[in-house]
Amino acid sequence: MGRPVVGEHDGTHEGAIQALWPFVRGHGPVFPHRIEQRKVFRTESGCPALLTGARGMPYPCRSVARERVWDSGERSSPPLG
Question: pLDDT tens, position by position, for the chain (81 residues)?
């Protein structure tokens, strides 16, 4: 999981997947420097993308929606099971 959280969405999982779309569409990664083609897919957990650079090299990119079930900073008891 060591990737940064790019945002939070209050609502349904479906809504969270839809909220990822603007990020995935406009994301400018370090590589490739110049994106020639961007293929975005939709799965149950997010929006994986395949970016093709100017030299034809593919660069996979994965944006995932995850559900937070507990936060130790909220001082509530952890969920059971």
Answer: 567 788 888 999 999 999 998 888 888 888 888 999 999 999 999 999 999 999 999 999 999 998 888 787 877 666 665
Query: Structural domain boundaries of the chain?
Result: 29-66
Distance of CA 40 to the CA centre of its chain: 11
Q: Whole-prediction pTM value? A: 0.73
Asked if residues 49 and 37 have their Cβ atoms less than 8 Å apart, the reply is: no
What length does the chain have?
81
CA 20/CA 29 separation, integer angstroms: 15
